[in-house]
Amino acid sequence: MTRPERNPLLPDRMPKGDFFLCDILDAAPKGDLPSMEHPLFSVSTRPDTNVRRYEQGEHFVEVTPSVKGLATVFDRDILIFCISQLVRALDEGTKVSRTVRFRAVDLMRSTNRDVSGKGYQALVAAFERLAGTRITTNVIENETYVTDGFGLIDRWRIVRERKDGRMQEIEVELSDWVFEAINNYEVLTLDRDYFRLRKPIERRLYEIARKHCGAQKSWKIGLPKLKYKIGSNSSDKEFKRLVSRIINEPHDHIPQYSFEMREGIVHVTNRNFAPTPKTADTYAGRLEPDAYDGARQRAPGWDVYMLEQKWRAWMHKNGYSSAHPTKSFLSFCAEHYERNGAP
């Protein structure tokens, strides 16, 4: 009697409930805006167990690590992978959920991580830090103060193959905070070379430039504020040395943006800047840096620059003006897609 062939995988012990299966491996990398704005992730190469509190006016964000340390900039790759998959699915009209299931090897290859035994061990440590890092922040609604506490991820689990211990599938439950940012399209597309940046500060420099300079020609920021946004615990002198060493490298290797320091001010230049042509027959309202990402989300598949010219011509023809040009443009894109569908 022939014995049945043994399944090389363990039985699927994960719940068959509401989860999203990642299968869009060419999804463009996406980062959520709150994580790009606030220094929630450690740029230290050693375990960071310091509690951090950032305040802007009446608002605050407090980040509390576990005993294993604060989640790092490299741990954030996991969130970027999950966010990218979910946003791409939403663009295609697919229902998504907070619980995301994927193959470990797909995550590691998509984020340029080492696919080896050590790489898998590092992935487990990253999950532990992500789940252990807690964030407390306040929301002010009229005369009411609401204080909210949450983690970066709520739960994670791994299915392993018994023989070599390799991860087969991973299931991650994102926090409401991250999932809400995805549903509200509070995300920005990242250059794939982001995952090739070796130093944590390099990654934060790119994120901050992507968030604040965006598609503009240039942007600048003082060293003290830059240090705050990066979340560095270094002294002012050491931080200046670290940043100078990165931006003075001859390779100009940070994607899309070049950096220069002059008299304590870091100047950021967008190497891909393409000015929007203005003529007497188009509306001249200025769009915000993230307008094109928003347009791609509202009119997937369409050339957003072509839509921009149509919108400007339409505004001019009808004699319209707007105090919020970006909102007007995004509404135009959404209506265009609703009328015409995918190209």
Number of folding domains? 3
Rg from Cα:
22 Å
* SSE succession: EEHEEHEHHEEEEHEHEHHEEHHH
Secondary-structure content class: alpha+beta
Mean pLDDT: 84
N- to C-terminal separation? 58 Å
The proportion of residues in beta strands is 15-25%
Compute the number of strand runs.
13
Sheet of most strands: 4 strands, mixed
Helix tally equals: 11
* Low-confidence parts: 6-17
Could you explain how this protein is built, in words?
There is one protein chain. The protein has helices at residues 33-37, 76-91, 104-110, 117-132, 176-183, 200-212, 223-230, 236-247, 291-298, 304-317, 325-340; strands spanning 20-21, 30-32, 52-56, 59-64, 99-103, 134-141, 144-151, 153-160, 167-174, 187-189, 218-222, 257-262, 265-270. Helix 2 packs parallel to helix 5 and helix 9 packs parallel to helix 11. Residues 6-17 have low confidence and may be disordered. The longest helix has 16 residues, at 76-91. The chain has 343 residues and is α+β, with helices and mostly antiparallel strands. It has eleven helices and 13 strands. It folds into three domains: 20-190, no CATH class; 200-270, Arc Repressor Mutant, subunit A, CATH 1.10.10; 291-340, no CATH class. The strands form four sheets. A four-stranded mixed beta sheet has the order 1-5-9-8. The chain has a four-stranded antiparallel beta sheet with strand order 3-4-6-7. The protein has a three-stranded antiparallel beta sheet with strand order 11-13-12. 36% of the residues lie in helices and 21% in strands.
